[in-house]
Amino acid sequence: MAHVLIIGASRGIGLETVKQALMAGHRVRAMARSADAIPLDHADLETRAGDALDAEAVRESLDGVDAVVQALGVAAGPDMILKPVRLFSDSTAILVPAMEAAGIRRLICLTGFGAGDSRDHGNILYLVAFNLFLRHAYNDKDVQEIIVRRSTLDWVIARPGILTNGPKTGDYRILGDPSEWRTGFISRADVADFLVRQIDSDEWLRKTPVLIS
Ligand SMILES: NC(=O)c1ccc[n+]([C@@H]2O[C@H](COP(=O)([O-])OP(=O)(O)OC[C@H]3O[C@@H](n4cnc5c(N)ncnc54)[C@H](OP(=O)(O)O)[C@@H]3O)[C@@H](O)[C@H]2O)c1
What's the pTM value of the predicted model, to 2 decimals? Predict the structure, then answer.
């Protein structure tokens, strides 16, 4: 069983990943600015209030861990639509060299369908919505993916489709071949299932699968 740092652990996919990693028997360090409010109590869970943009806090959070799940998100709202986003690239530019320096090899990274070379695989409605609402966030996720791909780490980049709050089904598609890439819905719980499975599987190393149900 691994000792896993989950960054962006207080809500959404990150929190689901904390729950499922604990259920799988891993030790979890759960980091987010509001980590103190994580509503879980477990002997193998350590919460760590900290900012992914604080290099010292990130270095300290890596102490003793075997793998990192990065599940950051920006708040939906006017800022995300109107202003450039830097969270994904800036935090990754801190995390990757810190992992390399610490000798921690495994990074399981979450971006989304539309990042990197999956951008042109959406239908016309998706591309319109994408350009209106998600452009800034995904321009930054593009840079995030480049930093991860250029690293010496053992990485996986998961690109889920449109997220729902549905239950974990375990019945979802992992589309590795670009010819299969398309958007669809998937629950945060199923995305978390995929992320947790990558902690001790090499199947998707250095790949960028799209996840849909
Ligand atoms: N919505 C969709 O349909 C969709 C589709 C594909 C991909 N995605 C992507 O999936 C990801 C997860 O989305 P989600 O809705 O499940 O999660 P979310 O609600 O956006 O949660 C984001 C997490 O990141 C943490 N965070 C944000 N800034 C941080 C910072 N500076 N330092 C440390 N932690 C920070 C938040 O905690 P604190 O605020 O406490 O720090 C929170 O735990 C996002 O990147 C999103 O773009 C979304």
Answer: 0.98
